[in-house]
Design a protein that fits this description.
Blueprint lengths: L3 E2 H8 L13 E10 L6 E7 L10 E2 L2 E3 L15 H8 L7 H19 L1 E3 L1 E2 L10 H6 L1 E2 L6 E7 L8 E9 L3 E4 L9 E8 H4 L6 H16 L10 E6 L2 E6 L1
Parallel strand pairs: 2-10, 9-13
Antiparallel strand pairs: 1-14, 2-3, 2-5, 3-4, 3-12, 6-11, 7-8, 9-10, 13-14
């Protein structure tokens, strides 16, 4: 994906991102790639967005969404590994520790809301935040120490929506609770565990396919996803959408 001109990128993404908006500042967002290692090849969790959505209808995506500032105020059982926190803050201006934590936590929250999966550890977790009451009721303390930053991508200018998205990954073993009824939102209408190669054959956004290839390459060299690995960063530089490493 890196190396495309603005015109090439606009054409490739026209199905996923409405074009024609004025200059917008990208909003922080995070998505979580859950990996299941119980089979002979790793599988990833993906969900299909409802057809009625105006943004990427019918596309398969990872659970995720915009960062809520309140996510950074939630008590944690374990915070980000220092190497991962450093990667998350790289090339991000004056990103505070609290904001970096909020970005990572939003991936945990969105995975609960969209897939009904609670990541964390058993413990006495308390908060007044309505978005985290399922964790309170289940006795699950959120933790970030197993999260690994896999990629980062900033939506190019000229889109109706723009996001500065961090693609985080962890393993299914870190899911403490799987709610049988799923999550409380209707963002995703179908959840599938797919081998990475098969996931790339589904109807997915171009950036998702690119990140899946990055993940596949990383797993080949580092199947346990050790902290501090190289992180591809996709963003428009001048007239070209470039791939750099954090």
């Amino acid at each position: 994906m890196g190396g495309l001109s603005r015109a090439q990128l606009d054409k490739a993404e026209s199905r996923d991102f409405a074009l024609g908006a004025g200059p917008l500042r990208p909003k922080d967002a995070a998505t979580l790639i859950l990996l299941d290692r119980s089979a002979s090849v790793p599988r990833v969790l993906m969900g299909r967005r409802h057809q009625r959505h105006t943004f990427m209808p019918g596309r398969y995506v990872f659970p995720g969404g915009r960062t809520d500032p309140g996510d950074g105020r939630i008590r944690l059982a374990a915070t980000l590994h220092p190497d991962e926190a450093s990667k998350l803050r790289a090339r991000a201006g004056r990103l505070s520790d609290t904001r970096a934590r909020a970005i990572a936590m939003s991936a945990i929250r969105e995975t609960y809301e969209e897939a009904g999966l609670l990541l964390g550890r058993r413990g006495d977790f308390r908060t007044r935040s309505p978005q985290w009451q399922a964790f309170v009721e289940a006795g699950i303390e959120p933790c970030l120490d197993r999260l690994r930053l896999i990629a980062r991508a900033i939506t190019p200018p000229g889109r109706v929506r723009r996001y500065d998205t961090r693609f985080l990954a962890t393993f299914r073993d870190d899911v403490a609770v799987e709610l049988p009824q799923g999550g409380p939102t209707e963002e995703l209408e179908e959840l599938l565990w797919l081998p990475i190669a098969e996931a790339m054959e589904h109807e997915i956004p171009m950036i998702t396919r690119t990140v899946l290839k990055d993940l596949q390459d990383r797993l080949t060299q580092d199947p346990d996803l050790k902290p501090g690995g190289a992180v591809p960063f996709y963003a428009m530089r001048g007239k070209t959408f470039k791939r750099e490493l954090l």
